[in-house]
Design goal:
Enolase-like, domain 1, alpha/beta, FAD/NAD(P)-binding domain, 5-stranded antiparallel beta sheet, 5-stranded mixed barrel
Length: about 475
């Protein structure tokens, strides 16, 4: 049995960060990965999807700017966009990422790992062999999630896309059906429309797109989608699907009995924790569920506090940057530092990279009220600031702050509009630092920038 201080199961971004931080702290580390070092985000999620989104964003931005608009004379070159996506994913080859582990002395075990007991695992190696490993200090689970398979009649066994298929394809379907109006479904729906799909239909069961964000965000996104020719069906569920023989068209039957047809079907209806089949039952944890963790990211209910879970598999926030943050907290705890996870409990940052973008941090108004907070809600039209006019015509969006009236601090913020993701960190710092609004009034945004929306919002509060 090989022995290490720490064994990490999963080499996506959270697993890499946890392994790297432990190794840099002087511990011996092994990381187990059965697919690609870099994980879902690098090869099938954030990196390829944002690369595919970017060409359409640039063209749309140019078309809003007189002088640049006249230079845009053709459609997006989908072939070139896919070529860039292939470059960004290394053509789904992780050889460029492995040296990062090697430079830190981290042992890479290619295969699938399974817990066999207290701080022990068995690894089924990619070459067909098996090995046992022991963790002297800790095991960190960073096994992520997999696409959910909803119980829709006809879906099982019918070829269709999930996020991996959509972000690795080199084909633009003429007609695309998208089940799910969350971040993944919305981003890819608009991406393929701008890459050349003639018809895109989004089917969402909730009353609006991006149902977990402030209501206005989904409403604004719907208006933008429909202006681009994307059909949006909300408060609508798909109850059955069928595909014509020979890989032909897909027909979805909706709960109102309407039928919609496309050449490809993308199912983006959430994620399921990848926690089955990794031996959790050996240590008294029920598999197949999100793993409950404490503020140090230790899995609750495991004696000795040696098992940690970071990233999507704990269900706190299914976002790469939050998983990496959790990995730092877990690693620092293992290294003997006194630290606790604060961000996952009210300071989660999230961006949906549509046009308009939806960038948010902290609590929505409804979440704040559910927590019993007395709040004020401040709003301002983002397009009213001079900096927006300098960017071109038709710049629209909204800034919203949720203020805890008792403390006089911000507990939530949402911005919509083109490229508003860069406004988000100022709100994140304000929330994380619990900065009083009276103090924020002295943080002067430069002119002419869109960040002047902060002045309008603070004026709404009487400052």
């Amino acid at each position: 049995m090989d022995s290490y201080d720490v064994v990490v199961l999963g080499a996506g971004p959270p697993g890499e960060v946890a392994a790297g931080r432990c190794a840099e702290g002087g511990l011996s580390v092994a990381i187990v990965e059965e697919r690609l070092v870099g994980g879902e985000c690098s090869y099938y999620g954030c990196i390829p999807s944002k690369t595919m989104i970017r060409p359409g964003d640039v063209v749309a931005s140019a078309r809003r700017a007189p002088g640049a608009a006249e230079a845009v004379t053709g459609p997006v070159d989908a072939v070139a966009a896919f070529r860039r996506r292939d470059y960004m994913t290394g053509n789904w080859d992780d050889s460029a990422q492995v040296p990062w582990l090697q430079d830190r002395g981290i042992a890479l075990l290619r295969g699938s790992g399974r817990i066999t007991g207290v701080r022990s695992l068995e690894v089924s190696l990619a070459d067909g062999g098996r090995t046992r490993v022991e963790a002297r200090k800790a095991v960190i689970l960073a096994v992520g999630t997999v696409p959910s398979r909803p119980p829709i009649e006809g879906l099982d066994g019918m070829p269709h896309w999930d996020n991996r298929d959509a972000t690795s394809t080199s084909e633009v379907p003429r007609r695309l059906l998208v089940l799910g109006g969350g971040a993944t479904g919305a981003e890819l729906a608009q991406a393929f429309r701008r890459l050349g799909s003639d018809e895109v239909t989004v089917i969402e069961g909730s009353p609006r797109l991006l149902s977990k964000e402030e209501p206005f965000a989904g409403d604004e996104l719907r208006v933008a989608f429909e202006s681009e020719g994307i059909r949006v069906l909300t408060a609508t569920r798909c109850r059955a699907v069928r595909r014509e023989s020979g890989g032909g068209a897909v027909t979805a039957t909706l709960d109102n009995s309407e039928q919609v047809t496309g050449d490809e079907l993308l199912v983006a209806l959430g994620r399921t924790p990848n926690t089955a089949g990794i031996g959790l039952e050996k240590v008294g944890v029920k598999p197949g569920r999100y793993l409950p963790v404490d503020r140090s990211l230790r899995v609750q209910g495991v004696d000795g506090g040696w098992l940690y879970a970071v990233g999507d598999c704990n269900g706190l926030a299914l976002l790469t940057h939050m998983g990496k943050y959790q990995a730092r907290v877990a690693a620092d705890t293992i290294l003997g530092k006194s630290i606790a996870d604060l961000a996952d409990h009210g300071i989660v940052t999230r961006v949906t990279f549509t046009d308009p973008q939806v960038a948010a941090v902290g609590l929505t108004e409804s979440q704040a009220r559910e927590r019993g907070l007395q709040v004020s809600v401040l709003t301002s039209a983002l397009g009213d600031v001079p900096g927006a006019y300098t960017q071109g015509n038709g710049i629209k969006g909204t800034g919203l702050l949720v203020v805890d009236d008792t403390l006089g601090t911000i507990v939530g913020a949402t911005f919509t509009g083109p490229a508003v993701q860069e406004l988000l960190h100022s709100a994140t710092v304000a929330i994380a630092g619990e900065v009083p609004l009276e103090r924020l009034a002295h943080a002067v945004p430069s002119f002419p920038t869109v960040s002047e929306v902060w002045l309008h919002l603070l004026e709404e509060y009487g400052l």
